[in-house]
Amino acid sequence: MPSSFHTPSIPSFDPRSEEQRLQTARASWWSRLELPTWSLIAAIYGGWLACVLHWQALGPWLGTPLLIVLSAWYMSLQHELIHGHPTRNARLNALFGQLPLAVWYPYAVYRDSHLAHHNSDTLTLPGIDPETYYVSQAETGADGARLRRFRNTSCGRLLIGPALAWSHTVRTAWLARDRKTLLVWGGHAVLLAAMLALLQRAGISPLFYIVVIAYPALSLTMVRSLFEHRAVESEHGRSVINEAGWPWRLLFLNLNYHLVHHLHPGLPWFHLRLAYLAKRETYLACSDGFVERGYLRLLWRYRSTPVITDVHPFA
């Protein structure tokens, strides 16, 4: 399986000072009130609405990339809401993730799927981990093998990854067709129709939004998951540490430190980097060499080579 099992050289940090910074941050009033997450909610919703209402002034050349980034950022926010932020009330948190700004998935579907993904014992296992890109030996065959191989390249993940992931989710919902599934998807459809009507009034074609904004936004989020997990025996070695630059860290809310997130899923996004830097050497040792240095290098390295093997090695 292709990988880059190396520890990239970055500026060293004093773990004692970083630990002190983390403790100070966690004790601060703004941290206890989760002001960074409340500010994030305001920025995403405010930015999205401003782009829509001022679409005619911005024009598609400026408005489109802004809405793509904001929609992708919104999906990162939904992830934060799922993990119990900014309040301890899951229902209240869910209210901030219900609107279909990113179009594709009902919040409840993403929530249930993602929480199931956080089972360390079954992480990456096909048929059990909902977010795995591996297939089992029983699922292998000539049909679909080339498609899966292409999907596991960076080009394939960006081009067809969203379509394959969404179609799989819809197919699963269709096969279930129980009361809960119908209510969740029905509610999502109503909210989506209302949002698309608002976009139409603002001068944004619903088809344009879905194809030119929402689809690339989902592709952008898939940059993070391109090589986020690998199938190895060590549980801690299954989740990556990606020492990415600040634009990626902000867009993905520090989920590039994915091992840290899986070890401490309740840690808010604005503490993940501090927690990592405070015990960097420990996390690097825990990762069994599953370390990357940024996403652009990753995208280029696996532009035509699959980032993982198609078949899970021990499923």
TrEMBL record:
Q: Recall the GO molecular function terms of this protein's record.
A: sphingolipid delta-4 desaturase activity
Domain (Fatty acid desaturase) ranges: 61-281
Alphabetically sorted, this entry's keywords are:
Membrane, Transmembrane, Transmembrane helix
Gene Ontology cellular-component annotations: membrane
Q: Does the keyword Cell inner membrane apply?
A: no
Q: So where does this one cross the membrane?
A: 61-77, 182-200, 206-227
Q: Which InterPro entries match?
A: FA_desaturase_dom (IPR005804)
> Would I find Membrane among this entry's keywords?
yes
Coiled-coil ranges (or none): none
In its UniProt record, which GO terms are filed under biological process?
ceramide biosynthetic process
PANTHER family reported for this sequence: SPHINGOLIPID DELTA 4 DESATURASE/C-4 HYDROXYLASE PROTEIN DES2 (PTHR12879), SPHINGOLIPID DELTA(4)-DESATURASE DES1 (PTHR12879:SF8)
Name the record gives this protein: Fatty acid desaturase family protein
Upper lineage is:
Bacteria, Pseudomonadati, Pseudomonadota, Betaproteobacteria, Burkholderiales
